[in-house]
Amino acid sequence: MRIPGLKTAKMLSRWLQGRVNGGALIVGYHRIASPSKDQYEICVSPTHFAEHLEILRKHAHPIRLSDLVDHLKQGTLPRKSVAVTFDDGYVDNLHNAGQLLEQYQIPATVFISTAYLGEEFWWDELERLVMDAPALPPSLRLKIRAEPFEWVSMPSEEEPGSPAEQSARKGLVKALYFRLLPLEIEACKEVISELKNMFGSQARRDTTQRALTTDELSELSNSGWVEIGAHSVSHTVLPHLSVAQQQTEIQQCKVFLEELLGKPVLGFAYPHGKFNAQTQAAVKTAGYSFACSSQAGQAWQSQQRYALPRIWPQDWDGERFTRMLRFWLGI
Ligand SMILES: [Zn+2]
Q1: How many whole angstroms from 119 Cα to the centroid of ligand 1?
Q2: Domain of 177?
Q3: Residue 1: inside a domain, yes or no?
Q4: pLDDT number for residue 2
Q5: Residue 245 pLDDT class (50, 70, 90 cuts)
Q6: Ligand 1 centre from 36 Cα, in Å?
Q7: Residue 301 class from Cβ within 10 Å (0-12 exposed, 13-18 middle, 19+ buried)?
Q8: What are the pLDDT digits (tens) for 185-198?
């Protein structure tokens, strides 16, 4: 049973504990870019990101995430500590974020899903194919892992590009995204390939909407401001996999990154923030020192280090970002 308001009450309780105990904040980003489309709301503009960093430099204590975890273990966490993290490893983390991190001398951790290096993520390809298709069919029938998926399009009189037609396209992206989210990468790729056949692959690919290549990842890792963490091999929701599959996803990602970069990879971020007891056990067994979730809150005790909470700033200006920091850290 779900008791209304319980989620908020729990969050407030965590917030209070964090404030009382002088907890640190871990902020999470995905992309630092201003693309024409951002349906998943994962982009922060370089201008706004620079404002966030300037505020952190002035009013907080920016700290590398692995150092934050060491302080948690030793009970020596500096007040107003904030660690910056990025999930997925988009190429703009190097070209847009990297330069700003260096300018403001703020360290960050970038969590990488190794199967996507140099590639477009399936959810971005889905958005691109549906939004850029010359026209959508009146209805769409697919088999997704033997289950029917049916979608009825916009009324036929809608002109391509009209607000109603755009909103119908967004509705299809959203419906397919949530249908594919729990599935393994092969199932997602099968559906994407079917959509390509239906809508045509002439849709324009934005070359900045992709993951870092191995060379770019090495460059980012050598920049001095960024430590690399792991984000699984295929970015699947791990608790949906068998224990053995979870272990493979978690271990192979670490082995690959350590071989490529020649450095230990200490941190893991759960894809979509989702984990269960088996996921946590696999992360510990693989030798990671800490793992990030997506649950909101402050980090203030060592026991949290395999489920570190994070806050996700959106494309906020400095004023909105300061309000968030004030709420969580009391600055
Ligand atoms: Zn992710």
Answers
A1: 14
A2: 122-199
A3: no
A4: 44
A5: very high
A6: 21
A7: middle
A8: 889 999 999 988 88
